[in-house]
């Protein structure tokens, strides 16, 4: 199982792109799907060499730094066929950042958030978070189902601020008295261990407290917002260990109404000196 997890971690690194940051966002998203198929499934090394900067900064904990480190995994990816599939579910672009929320199936289902930074049309930096996708969840929803249409583009900045304030007030500073400012009666949950609504969130926090399990956010590192969707990449503590938190929120009428996430522990040792953030 550990071998397969490492395989998924490695494969997520190959989702790099030829995106130019000055082209239309729809073209970027179409390119993202093509990159997953051509670079990952197709194993096109020449494509990666052309569209990834040589000084590519890597934050995945087990992958060596640079384009050379990325290229080293292409041949390995081909050995996993035919038991290899990738399904991008949501793709957001915010300036030179592109976030991809995907399902992977590599001898087991995983959910992955990939985050890329681009300069001059080339991928120059990559972060990711990976988690097993369970068969059952508390809410009955999966870690990726739900709405995918991006709307309310004119509210992107407003929604980015709302989510940033929510993570800062509630998750970092624990100002739970402000919770209803951000979440109303409707709150659909995709975290596999939490139920819907404020009741579900309260039950989860109560469980952590009863079992002396620590849980806190320390810092937001990146935010990617487009219309009604906002993704945050944060650093925090879970059960006494440093974790990377990738949270995706859907906003409607000034309230957060839906949430997806991936949580991954930060290992003590990595293949580079860049850290996971």
Your description of this structure?
This protein has 2 domains: 2-132, Nuclear Transport Factor 2, Chain: A (Roll), CATH 3.10.450.50; 153-265, Nuclear Transport Factor 2, Chain: A (Roll), CATH 3.10.450. It is 29% helix and 36% strand. It has helices at 2-12, 25-41, 45-51, 66-71, 74-78, 156-172, 179-182, 197-210, and strands at residues 52-58, 85-94, 97-105, 109-119, 122-132, 183-189, 215-226, 229-238, 241-252, 255-265. The strands form 2 sheets. A 5-stranded mixed sheet has the order 1-5-4-3-2. It is globular.
Structural class: alpha+beta
**What overall geometry do the principal axes of the alpha carbons give?**
globular
Profile the largest sheet.
5 strands, mixed
Q: How many domain units?
A: 2
Measured distance between first and last alpha carbons: 26 Å
- Following the backbone from N to C, one meets helices and strands in this order, namely HHHEHHEEEEHHEHEEEE
CATH domain class of the largest domain: Alpha Beta
Could you say what the CATH topology of the largest domain is called? Nuclear Transport Factor 2, Chain: A
Helix content: 25-40%
Report the sheet-strand fraction: 35-45%
The number of helical elements comes to: 8
Low-confidence stretches: 1-24
Question: How are strands sequenced across the largest beta sheet?
Answer: 1-5-4-3-2
Q: How does CATH name the architecture of the largest domain?
A: Roll
Radius of gyration: 18 Å
User: Quick one: how many beta strands?
Assistant: 10
In round numbers, the mean pLDDT is: 87
């Amino acid at each position: 199982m550990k071998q397969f997890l490492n395989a998924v971690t490695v494969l997520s690194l190959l989702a790099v792109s030829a995106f130019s940051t000055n082209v239309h966002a729809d073209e970027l998203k179409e390119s993202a799907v093509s990159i997953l198929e051509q670079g990952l499934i197709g194993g096109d090394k020449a494509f990666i060499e052309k569209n990834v900067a040589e000084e590519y900064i890597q934050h995945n904990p087990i992958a060596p730094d640079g384009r050379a480190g990325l290229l080293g995994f292409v041949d390995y990816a081909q050995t996993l066929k035919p038991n290899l599939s990738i399904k991008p579910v949501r793709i957001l672009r915010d300036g030179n950042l592109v976030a991809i929320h995907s399902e992977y199936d590599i001898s087991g289902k995983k959910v992955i958030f990939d985050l890329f930074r681009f300069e001059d049309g080339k991928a120059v930096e990559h972060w990711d978070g990976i988690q097993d996708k369970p068969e059952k969840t508390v809410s009955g929803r999966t870690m990726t189902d739900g709405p995918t249409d991006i709307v309310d583009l004119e509210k992107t900045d407003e929604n980015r601020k709302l989510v940033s304030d929510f993570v800062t007030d509630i998750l970092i500073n624990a100002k739970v008295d402000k919770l209803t400012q951000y979440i109303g009666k409707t709150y659909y949950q995709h975290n596999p261990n939490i139920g819907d609504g404020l009741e579900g969130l309260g039950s989860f926090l109560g469980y952590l407290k009863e079992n002396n399990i620590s849980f806190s956010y320390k810092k937001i590192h990146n935010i990617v917002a487009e219309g009604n969707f906002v993704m945050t990449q944060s650093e925090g503590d879970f059960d006494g260990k440093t974790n990377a938190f990738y949270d995706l929120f859907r906003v409607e009428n000034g309230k957060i109404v839906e949430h997806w996430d991936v949580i991954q522990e930060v290992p003590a040792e990595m293949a580079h000196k860049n850290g996971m953030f």
